[in-house]
Write a structure and sequence with these properties.
- The chain is mostly helical.
- The chain has one domain: Arc Repressor Mutant, subunit A (Orthogonal Bundle), CATH 1.10.10.10.
- It is 47% helix and 12% strand.
- α1 crosses α2, α1 packs across α5 and α2 packs across α4.
- The radius of gyration is 15 Å and the shape is globular.
Amino acid sequence: MNIKELPADKLIEKTAQKLKAMDEFKPPEWARFVKTGVHKERTPQQDDWWHIRAAAVMRKVGIEGVIGVERLRKEYGGRKNLGHKPERKRKASGSVIRNVLRQLEAAEFVTTRKSKGRMLAPKGRSFLTEIAREIRKK
């Protein structure tokens, strides 16, 4: 089952539920107060935003093959409202993405490649494939 074929929202939602049940994926203390990037005005409104971001990053790593923190920052960034000036593109928080990737590595879902970035480990690929099969059955 290919994760590219499924709707992203269903895969991310189901993966976030499964990650929430695991001990490796606990948000840090500072996660309650932090914005996900300088382009945001407020902190995330959802209580489980950390698990949703972890699931989204895991899906993105699975689709891209090998991807680094800077490319992920660019992917999750957005437009910053500058008042009368034109909006400008800003990157997402690198600390959030790095900590999520560390947790994914601790769970052995992601591995590091030399000077290239992160890639999905076999355990992570099978985890996402199993979730894709569950979604496909419904």
